[in-house]
Amino acid sequence: MWGACLCLGWLASLCVVADSFSMFKPHETDVDLPEQVASLTSSWDVKKMRILEFVTAQHAASGSPGWALAVVHHNETLLAQGFGLNEVVANPANQVSPDSMFHIGSVTKTMVAVALAKLVDEGRVRWTDRVTQHLPWFTLHDKYAQTYTTLHDLLGMNSVFAEGDSDYQASFGVYSSERDMVQRLGSYATTRTYRQGYAYANVNFAILGQVVQAVTNQTWGEYLTQAIWTPLGMMHTYDWAEHAPADHQLSKGHFVCNGTVAGHEIQAVFVGAMGTSWGYHFDPKGGRALGAGYGIDVVGPSMYRNLDYFDKNGDTAEHQTRTGFVPSRGLGVVLLNNGQLMDKGSNIQRLSRVRTYVLGILLDIPQNELVAAWNESVLAADALYPVGDCKAAAFDSTPPTPTYHPSDAVKEWLAGEYTAMAYPDFVGNASIYVQNKNQLVFKYGTYAGPLIGLTNTTFVWNVFVAVAPAVTVRIAKLPNGLPTIAIDDMFAFVKVLA
Fold first, then answer.
1. pTM, rounded to two decimals
2. Sign of CA dihedral 232, 235, 236, 238
3. Do both 329 and 416 map to the same domain?
4. Same domain for 383 and 362?
5. Which one, of 478, 479, 497, 463, lies nearest residue 487 by Cα?
6. What is the pLDDT along the chain (498 residues), one digit of tens a residue?
7. Are residues 266 and 375 in the same domain?
8. DSSP per position, 141-178
9. What is the CA radius of gyration of the chain?
10. Neighbouring C-beta atoms of residue 59, cutoff 10 Å
11. How far apart, in whole angstroms, are the C-alpha atoms of residue 159 and residue 161?
């Protein structure tokens, strides 16, 4: 569930556009909504035209190869529409359609939460169960947290894990499986305290996936297929891209830069400028608060006129998913993008704003309010991320130019096996070897690529992983003469003597 999508959003289920609402069709409420429903249905043709014109224009402006849009009203799918291409290079005639399949990234967390909810309904687990009740092999460096962390803590993103914990290693394929990664957590010293508060961390749901497997004797994907997806008619949703039939329209991932394609915890992540940049418009006055549910990003009055609202966003290295639901109006929107934007903030968050704008059209928000909210989000996003880095190594197929050429003696000194200087079991091992009698190659996890010298202490590891077209590698020498290497100034390794 994490291998294919790298560090930006593990748990990468694959979902066809037409399947995207089967689990999320807004429920009927106790509110009498005849006027609202009549307003929506009577003006649907006009709204549909506005939505399609707007989304078509925004897709073109984004530079992304392909988008998909689905709109549901109560139990009816009103719109399932593709825009652009499934892939640019291999098959440029392959258009996005309602049958196209996209990685949904972290929206899979919602799926895992639903799997656990069904197990709770069946009495097989409780939200308050400690993780060790189901995973007796589960260990943490923080023994108090190991003993008392519950499913609720993980689901509500209120654990000892911080954002990014284990993501880097998962991105590079250090772990052989999800269980392997979870088993290695005991050798890593977490930085947060027990129940410190909300902090988004992918690893929480990797652990929960193992809980589902322990209880059901099925992988989380197998259980969801048998217990949730198939009964709901979601016949084209898969836990791994590799599990999708070859004849399905798999929407390939792309990087895009400047138009070039190469439990309910209180949270403050989407409050203020960050929230506005994502297309949220939340006013905390009067004691209002945004919550985060089990596999849900935002719960609360974060949209127009304080309407009830919830969503889950999903990003993999090369795909984006944005959802939005207003239960009292029976409305839901899903947008999918097969091109991860890497330039300025307003383009990176374009899909988020389009989600907000489309909901606004459906909710009869006046045009001037839609435009004002859009412009506010653009300004906030560009203030946070004003300039994108369109690295030549990624977008122009231009490798870094070497400005330092190590001698044969230096190559021999560097070549060998390396172990992590901190948390070696968790971080993993690395190696350097000489290829074709000349080129230094660095290998970490499942990735290997040339080391290109800039100075005698700084190299570039020329691999393309997630949003890192090239990785900085720094070389140092210990007093005992052994070399050390640090990747991205984050993880250091020391050469192991044979």
1. 0.82
2. positive
3. no
4. yes
5. 463
6. 332 222 223 344 556 555 655 554 444 443 343 444 445 555 888 999 999 999 999 999 999 999 999 999 988 889 999 999 888 877 778 899 988 888 888 888 999 999 999 999 999 999 999 999 999 999 999 999 999 999 999 999 999 999 888 888 888 889 988 999 999 999 999 999 999 998 999 999 999 999 999 999 999 999 999 999 999 888 888 887 778 776 567 788 787 877 777 733 333 333 344 343 344 443 444 444 444 567 888 877 777 777 888 889 998 878 899 999 999 989 999 999 998 888 888 888 999 999 999 999 999 999 999 999 899 989 998 998 887 777 766 666 677 889 999 999 999 999 999 999 999 999 999 999 999 989 999 999 988 989 999 999 999 998 876 545 578 899 999 999 999 999 988 899 999 987
7. yes
8. SSHHHHHH-BHHHHHTT-SSPPTTTTHHHHHTT-SSSH
9. 24
10. 25
11. 5
Owning domain of residue 484 = 393-495
Q: CATH number for the domain including 477?
A: 2.40.128
**Residues 27 and 116 placed together within one structural domain of the fold:** yes
Q: ∠ at Cα 109 (55, 360), nearest 5°?
A: 30
Q: Long-range contacts for 127-135 (Cβ within 8 Å, ≥24 apart)?
A: 127/151, 127/152, 127/155, 127/263, 128/152, 131/207, 131/211, 134/211, 134/214, 134/215, 135/182, 135/207, 135/210, 135/211, 135/214
Question: Are the beta carbons of 249 and 94 closer than 8 angstroms?
Answer: yes
- Domain at 264, CATH number: 3.40.710.10
Of the residues 357, 390, 423, the one at which a domain ends: 390
Structure tokens at 128: 């308050």
Question: Contact at 8 Å (CB) between 183 and 213?
Answer: no
Give the residue carrying structure tokens 């016949």.
Answer: 235
State whether 367 and 426 are in the same domain. Answer: no
Q: How wide is the angle at C-alpha 200 spanned by C-alphas 328 and 353, nearest 5°?
A: 50
CB 183 within 8 A of CB 16: no
Domain count, the chain: 2
> Tokens 């080129």 identify what position?
439
Give the torsion sign (CA, 96, 101, 103, 109).
positive
Strands 260-261 and 76-84, sheet pairing: unpaired
Instruction: Give how far Cα 22 sits from Cα of 74, 76, 108, 258, Å.
Output: 11, 10, 14, 35
98 shares a domain with 7 = yes
Beta partners for residue 335, in sequence order: 69, 322
Which of 355, 390, 425 is a domain's end point? 390
Residue 281 and residue 243 share a domain:
yes
Are residues 366 and 265 both part of a single domain?
yes
Distance CA 236, CA 305 (A): 36
